[in-house]
Amino acid sequence: MLGDALSIRGSTDSRRLGTAVFELLGTLARELVDAGVSFVLEGNFTSGSAALAALSRARVAQVHLSASPETLRARLLERDAHRHPVHYDREAADEIAERTARGDWQPLPLGGALFELDATRAIDVAALAAKIRLSHRGAPRG
Asked: Which residues, including other chains, have CB under 8 Å from residue 37's CB and lie 6 or more apart?
């Protein structure tokens, strides 16, 4: 929606939009934590992501999905070419594979429960949700 409203096309504009969206996520996360509201924050965050700062005061369950650099590259190259122009999967495939190989997207130092999943296998979402609920029973908020 933002990509259309701002006529975003290509990787340079998309990166600028992504930076702005992650800043917005940080603001929203702070407001939701302050209000005591439960929420899901999803993205390809790194430890320096501003959106994560508010989470130090929250009860966190981190779900970290991973796959080999080769798998990620192949998936990006296979994605539908008809996706919105704000996505530049094919152009970013090599960079994402390289950054994954470097370890840029390891689990984040957030505290709380960590669930590491292999994204090349089917994920039982109901079972995962049950594990997350169990991990939070009686756990104090940050």
From this structure: none
